[in-house]
Amino acid sequence: MNGILYVVMSGCTWKNVPRRYGSKSTVHRFHPYLFEHSIYQKIFNELLNKGYDLDKIDISHCFTDTKDIPAKKWEKPIKMDTKK
């Protein structure tokens, strides 16, 4: 998980992940596993609920950056549930 967070936060490619997080193949292989098993959604929901509990969430203004995700015709969009 730390290797994936490193890629997200630093913007580096998978091949440039520091060895202390495991091999690039292991880190990269773990990423789709987390997605396919809805683990990202569970983490997101826990963080969101914690933010609501602490009264720290204001979703009146929010956005997501999807410029690197190609749009494919006829595919259903992926949505993340943001309801408490």
UniProtKB/TrEMBL annotation:
Name of a matching Pfam family: DUF4096
InterPro entries, per database record: IS402-like_dom, Transposase_6_like
Domain Insertion element IS402-like residues, every copy: 1-43
Signal sequence annotation: none
Protein name in UniProt: Mobile element protein
Lineage: Archaea, Methanobacteriati, Methanobacteriota, Stenosarchaea group, Methanomicrobia
